[in-house]
Design goal:
Elements lengths: L6 E10 L2 E11 L4 E5 L6 H8 L7 E6 L8 H4 L3 E4 L11 H10 L7 H7 L15 H13 L5 E5 L7 H16 L3 E5 L3 H7 L2 E6 L2 E6 L1 H6 L3 E8 L7 H9 L4 E6 L2 E7 L2 H13 L4 E7 L3 H9 L6
Helix pairs in contact: 9-10
Length: about 300
């Protein structure tokens, strides 16, 4: 029997009045993976995840989580998933550990509360009312609340927002351990390094549509735009940028940074460095260094969406 996806979204359409928030979106999250859903503010990612979590019903299309309809089969699905909200999720006056213990009692086979709280650094603020917790402490508690019921799929929204570097790293390790234990993690984040570090698969959405999917490596290598920095031992001859651009082709931009440095931006493959080297030889230019720059996930994101990931 084939393994069903952890999450399947097919042709999802969601509107708020006249605003089209999700426009025929289709994507799949495989089981036992960490999958990041990225997009600029207003791209439709939160609406999509809220539909997967059962907080909204699809206006068009279908959504399935562990093969179940999140709205019509809510009672069957909810004990099997965990949801970490970006804000809220606890009463204003409740103490952190009280809330975590209460949530544990709602599940048939919860995790041990004390080790989970210790792992996420909640021991230091366990007796503090929720409203007095820092933003990072509230995030840690929200993650603990999502995990304490031993979910098969956990949705985490901005899991490390406001956390200090040490706790952020601990949270990464915890999410990776969940995947190794067979839990599927679906996350949104505004931190590109977080997505690159954690995600097995990344879906990028913009204006409610899927614009790219792939592993971090596939997305970074999927484009052809790179940079080449050429540094020489003595000043370039007159007209060097135009001459090099002519040698490389019209899709290339060549900018002179200073008397001895040029930056080449544009399509590049294995032959591009050879072309730059031949140009140097023909023009009597002696390179001191010739370096090829690798795009990162943020470069890909900006190319695809034209927007920034801002919290």
């Amino acid at each position: 029997m084939p393994v069903i996806p952890a999450v399947s979204v097919d042709g999802l359409v969601m509107r708020y009045g006249d605003k089209l928030a999700v426009d025929g979106l289709s994507l799949t999250v495989e089981q036992h993976t960490i999958t990041a859903v990225l997009g600029p503010n207003g791209a439709g990612k939160t609406t999509t995840l809220e539909t997967c979590e059962g907080y909204r019903g699809p206006q068009q299309g279908t959504v399935r989580v562990l093969g179940l309809d999140p709205v019509r089969q809510r009672k069957e699905l909810h004990p099997r998933i965990g949801v970490m909200l970006q804000g809220g999720g606890a009463w204003s006056g409740v103490r952190a550990m009280e809330m975590l213990r209460h949530m544990a009692r709602l599940h048939a086979h919860p995790l041990d509360v004390e080790p989970l709280a210790e792992r996420l650094g909640l021991g230091e603020c366990g007796r503090t009312p929720y409203r007095r917790l820092s933003g990072g402490q509230q995030q840690r508690l929200a993650l603990a609340l999502a995990l304490v019921g031993r979910p098969e799929v956990v949705f985490v929204d901005e899991p490390t927002a406001g956390m200090d570097p040490q706790v952020r790293r601990t949270t990464w390790e915890l999410l990776q351990e969940l995947r190794e234990d067979g839990v599927t993690v679906v996350l949104t984040t505004h931190y590109m390094d977080e997505a690159e570090q954690l995600a097995d698969m990344i879906h990028i959405i913009d204006h409610g549509r899927l614009v790219a999917s792939g592993t971090p490596l596939e997305l970074v290598r999927g484009g052809t735009v790179t940079t080449i920095r050429l540094v020489v031992t003595k000043p370039f001859p007159p007209g060097a940028p135009g001459s090099l651009r002519e040698a490389l082709g019209p899709e290339t931009v060549v900018a002179q940074l200073d008397d001895v440095s040029l930056l080449v931006t544009g399509p590049a493959d294995a032959s591009t460095l050879a072309k730059v080297s031949r140009w140097c030889d023909v023009n009597g230019v002696l390179p001191e260094s010739l370096t090829l720059g690798q795009r990162n996930l943020e470069d890909v994101f900006l190319d695809l969406t034209g927007g920034e990931l801002t919290p």
